[in-house]
């Protein structure tokens, strides 16, 4: 999967991050999140590589209480941990 996908699941918009979530993905991810009205779940389950620009978009998105991050892949967890934001954002991350 190389694209950001978005689907409605019972009134909750689920935005799935692509396998490679890097600088080229960050602007489109930001746009996809801003277009959501209502509750949003950011699914990181298929991410194999994620870089700082995408993490920055996710950190910013999680400031909105209607946005949650779910199903973090090991690559997502490692990036969040390496950048020192995993513990800080734990309230916005749902357990797998």
Count the beta strands.
7
Distance between the termini: 20 Å
State the domain count: 1
Mean pLDDT: 91
Q: Based on the coordinates given, report the CATH architecture.
A: 2-Layer Sandwich
Shape label: globular
Give the percentage of residues in beta strands: 25-35%
H/E element sequence: EEEHEEHEHE
Estimated structural class: alpha/beta
CATH class: Alpha Beta
Number of helices: 3
Major β-sheet annotation: 5 strands, mixed
* DSSP helix fraction: 25-40%
Task: List the quaternary state of the chains.
Answer: single chain
CATH superfamily: STAS domain
Radius of gyration: 12 Å
Word description of this protein:
The protein is α/β, with parallel strands linked by helices. The chain has one domain: Transcription Regulator spoIIAA. 29% of the residues lie in helices and 25% in strands. It has three helices and seven strands. It has helices at 26-34, 52-61, 74-82; strands at 5-9, 12-16, 20-21, 40-43, 49-50, 67-70, 93-94. The chain has a five-stranded mixed β-sheet with strand order 1-2-4-6-7, with no helix packed on it. Strands 3-5 form a two-stranded parallel ribbon. The radius of gyration is 12 Å and the shape is globular. The protein starts with a strand and ends with a strand.
Layout of helices and strands, plus pairs?
Layout: E1 5-9, E2 12-16, E3 20-21, H1 26-34, E4 40-43, E5 49-50, H2 52-61, E6 67-70, H3 74-82, E7 93-94
Parallel strand pairs: 2-4, 3-5, 4-6, 6-7
Antiparallel strand pairs: 1-2
What tags apply to this protein structure?
96 residues; alpha/beta; Transcription Regulator spoIIAA; two-stranded parallel ribbon; 29% helix; 25% strand
């Amino acid at each position: 999967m190389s694209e950001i996908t978005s689907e409605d699941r019972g009134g909750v918009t689920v935005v799935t991050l692509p396998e490679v979530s890097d600088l080229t993905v960050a602007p489109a991810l930001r746009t996809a999140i801003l277009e959501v009205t209502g509750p949003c779940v950011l699914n990181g389950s298929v991410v194999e590589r994620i870089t700082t620009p995408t993490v920055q978009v996710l950190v910013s998105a999680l400031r909105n209480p209607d946005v949650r991050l779910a199903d973090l892949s090991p690559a997502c967890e490692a990036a969040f941990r390496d950048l020192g934001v995993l513990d800080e954002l734990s309230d916005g991350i749902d357990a797998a």
